[in-house]
């Protein structure tokens, strides 16, 4: 009888180990699947600004440092980001945009960040963006937002300022980052 109990316990332990290995495999596959779904999110699910091959309209505005910012004065590739007050997706996309802005070869001169809403409620965003971008604040989507064709928030894009052409756009930094990497390597 003891031998039967021993065999039963060994069999139960073996089944438990197999179950544990299968569960670990499922967890690994779920993580891989989640990463792949995240990569698919670079497909344009929603147009938040003029699409690639669109053109921005000329604009001029004052930055938060009281400098004049005009589209006609910008040159080369310009990273743009538009974020709105009270926008949870904007808070989610901000770190990715900040990372891209920090890696911009020309620094803040080639990065424009637009904050739309009440300046009093955008202090934290302004504080984060000012070291890496030329920051413009607008109460409504009129000036710069209209020129960029902002239709939703967040909006992140890469623009050829020499031609006004939108090279890449989306609501997440990775949608623009891939194009920036391609542009830098060519």
What does this protein look like?
- By secondary structure, the protein is an alpha/beta fold.
- The chain folds into two domains: 1-40; 60-185, Glutaredoxin, CATH 3.40.30.10.
- Helix content is 43%, strand content 20%.
- The protein contains five helices and seven strands; from the N terminus they run H-E-E-E-H-E-H-E-H-E-E-H.
- It has helices at residues 2-40, 88-102, 123-129, 143-148, 173-185; strands at 60-62, 68-70, 77-84, 111-116, 134-138, 155-160, 165-170.
- The strands form two sheets. The protein has a five-stranded mixed beta sheet with strand order 5-4-3-6-7. A two-stranded antiparallel ribbon has the order 1-2.
- Strand 3 (77-84), helix 2 (88-102) and strand 4 form a beta-alpha-beta unit.
- It is elongated.
* CATH architecture assignment name of the largest domain: 3-Layer(aba) Sandwich
- The general outline is elongated
- The CATH superfamily of the largest domain is known as Glutaredoxin
Placed side by side, the strands forming the largest sheet appear as 5-4-3-6-7
- How many extended strands? 7
Mean pLDDT: 87
Q: Over all CA atoms, what is the radius of gyration?
A: 24 Å
Q: What count of helical segments does DSSP give?
A: 5
- Which secondary-structure class do the elements indicate? alpha/beta
Q: Biggest sheet: strands, sense, closure?
A: 5 strands, mixed
Beta-strand fraction estimate: 15-25%
Low-confidence stretches: 40-45
Q: Helix fraction?
A: 40-55%
CATH class membership of the largest domain: Alpha Beta
Instruction: Write down the secondary-structure element order.
Output: HEEEHEHEHEEH
- Separation of the first and last Cα atoms: 76 Å
What count of structural domains? 2
